[in-house]
Design goal:
Blueprint (H helix, E strand, L loop, with lengths): L6 H4 L1 E6 L24 E5 L13 H14 L11 E4 L3 E5 L9 E6 L3 E11 L2 E8 L4 E3 L3 E2 L5 H4 L15 E4 L4 E4 L5 H7 L41 E5 L4 E10 L2 E6 L4 E3 L3 E4 L7 E2 L8 E4 L5 E8 L2 E9 L3 E11 L2 E6 L4 E3 L3 E4 L14 E6 L4 E6 L2 E7 L18 E4 L2 E10 L9 E13 L2 E5 L15 E3 L1 H10 L10 E3 L8 E5 L9
Parallel strand pairs: 25-34, 31-32
Antiparallel strand pairs: 1-2, 3-6, 3-9, 4-5, 5-33, 6-7, 7-8, 10-13, 10-16, 11-12, 13-14, 14-15, 17-27, 18-21, 18-24, 19-20, 21-22, 22-23, 25-26, 26-27, 28-34, 29-30, 29-33, 30-31
């Protein structure tokens, strides 16, 4: 079970009870996915609460003060926000530092169905003639993008927010067959026969190059491009999927004796062509005086590894450690019979090359201030440590970019120091691949994404569970629960009802320091 850190570290100190959520009737390249889905029982409000200053005497200040006082009281004194709540009914909408629709003042965004606690008074100006609502935690949103009337049919039929209380924010499924169609609406029986037909095996031989890529006997997927997947697009067929693509699921329904998925992007997909996937329950370790660094995690292809005691200079196996199991170390090391062994806090021994060891960073970043939250990544050990100032508070495994000496196929993660530029509860990642032989990929609504440099990000990865091993196209893969922890640990904060935020207009991003990458060899 995932145990969050103490409240002052988690910084989620005020639960805004929403009652029952409204529902609908019934590697790293591109970003900016759209439209969430999945039910949640409440919205967590993170501090600091810092809305823009308003004139005194409006009545709004008292509501803001109540919210701030409730936040200061701590998680145990969480109080429900009485309302109003602003429900987004447009596809997505910007949130601004001031009541002006200026891109330079944009601090975040909300997607359809986002439910934002707001102050009751509105600010009316030429930028939004219907009036701006101010969020309890800050930011202004134009009222024409939604409604505070929760009985409004548009609110009742809006998307359900991502479920931040679950391992994953949405259900996900993996496409099992090349050519699976994504429809814009439910097709008829005749349309299914037309769009999902396959070449008959008993028909006369036809040059396979004349067939669509998904009907060919042999198709080299590395030659298929994302743009080609929409070439058959019409009013009903949106595009086709390559085997291995992932969709995020809004809901499942029955129609015409067949089960269907509605995706978070509003598309309709046949369920029988997908395999449901779940996120790993693995997560890192909260650190304190009793549980400190160094900390080892068992890794590798085997389900378990031996645990030893030393008896008169020889090893004696006394048990096993499960894959990904955390093990606190004493700091002692021993070389014996050609192998190195590390002593556990329980006085047992583990073979050094069967664990990944998370340690405190050897060097602190410049100008580090007390209580500054930052993240240290070690590519050599495939570990990550979250710190508050000089104090480690959390440690876990990562999967960084695959490394090779061949410049044409290398995906190594960069090393250096950055700050988090933007954060998204989910966003879609897809692309044709940047190296020779790469296959096209598409993963809808990748969870808990924190971009720090270009298209490089820290993010959750549910499509593999090989944490501690280099696996990615360059991003820092994390188990979903670890990604969620870091998402709420780091800045900029993503407030209740928001789907993403940028480090701008006084909101700074947390530092990400990555060490351990070796320079890529120059091509000959």
């Amino acid at each position: 079970m995932f145990c969050p850190p103490e409240p002052n570290l988690w910084r989620i100190v005020l639960a805004f009870s929403l009652g029952s959520a409204v529902g609908c009737a019934g590697a790293c390249m591109d970003e900016k996915g759209h439209e969430p889905r999945t039910r949640t029982e409440g919205v967590l409000i993170s501090t600091p609460i810092a809305p823009a200053a308003r004139d005194a005497g409006t009545g709004a200040a008292s509501a803001r003060d109540v919210a701030r006082e409730s936040a200061d009281a701590g998680a145990d004194a969480a109080a429900p926000w009485p309302g109003p709540f602003f429900t987004v009914i447009s596809g997505s909408t910007g949130i601004y530092a001031q009541p002006v629709a200026d891109r330079a003042l944009k601090v975040g965004y909300a997607r359809n169905g986002g439910r934002i606690p707001v102050l009751p008074e509105m600010v009316v100006n030429d930028a939004c003639r219907s009036g701006w609502y101010e969020g309890v935690q800050g930011g202004f949103i134009c009222s024409s993008e939604g409604t505070v009337d929760q009985e409004d049919p548009r609110a009742r039929l809006s998307a359900t927010p991502p479920n931040i209380n679950a391992v994953l924010p949405y259900p996900y499924a993996r496409n099992a067959r090349n050519g699976t169609p994504l429809y814009s609406s439910v097709p008829s029986v005749d349309q299914i026969a037309a769009y999902e037909a396959h070449a008959e095996r008993d028909t006369p031989a036809v040059d396979s190059s004349d067939r669509p890529w998904w009907q060919r006997d042999r198709v080299q997927l590395s030659q298929v491009r994302l743009a080609e997947l929409a070439t058959e697009s019409d009013g009903l067929l949106a595009r086709r999927l390559v085997q291995g693509f992932y969709i995020a699921i809004d809901r499942e329904f029955e129609w015409g004796s067949r089960s269907w998925y509605k995706t978070t992007k509003g598309m309709v997909a046949p369920k029988d062509r997908f395999v449901a996937v779940e996120g790993s329950s693995f997560h890192g370790v909260e650190l304190n005086e009793e549980r400190s660094l160094p900390l080892a995690f068992v890794y590798g292809t085997r389900d378990s590894r031996p645990r030893y005691q030393i008896d008169h200079g020889s090893l004696k196996q006394v048990g096993t450690l499960n894959k990904l199991q955390p093990v606190h170390l004493s700091g002692e090391k021993l070389d014996l019979a050609g192998h190195s062994y590390l002593q556990t806090a329980d006085q047992d021994w583990v073979q050094a090359d069967q664990v990944r060891v998370a340690s405190a960073p050897a060097q602190l970043p410049a100008n580090l201030v007390p209580n500054e939250r930052w993240v240290s990544v070690d590519l050599r050990t495939q570990t990550l440590v979250a710190l508050v100032g000089e104090r480690p508070v959390y440690a876990t495994l990562i999967s960084s970019g695959k490394e090779t000496s061949d410049v044409t196929t290398d995906h190594r993660s960069p090393s250096g120091e950055w700050t988090i530029r933007e954060k998204h509860i989910t966003t879609t990642m897809d692309g044709d691949g940047t190296a020779a032989g790469d296959l096209p990929y598409s993963i809808e609504d990748v969870p808990y994404v924190m971009y720090f440099e270009g298209s490089y990000a820290l993010h959750g990865a549910f499509w593999h569970r090989n944490y501690g091993v280099r696996m990615s196209h360059g991003c820092i893969n994390l188990a979903p629960l670890d990604a969620k922890y870091l998402f709420f640990f780091t800045d900029p904060p993503v407030h209740a009802g928001w789907h993403g935020a940028w480090a701008a207009n006084g909101s700074k991003g947390s530092r990400v320091v990555i060490d351990g990458s070796t320079p890529l060899p120059r091509p000959r």
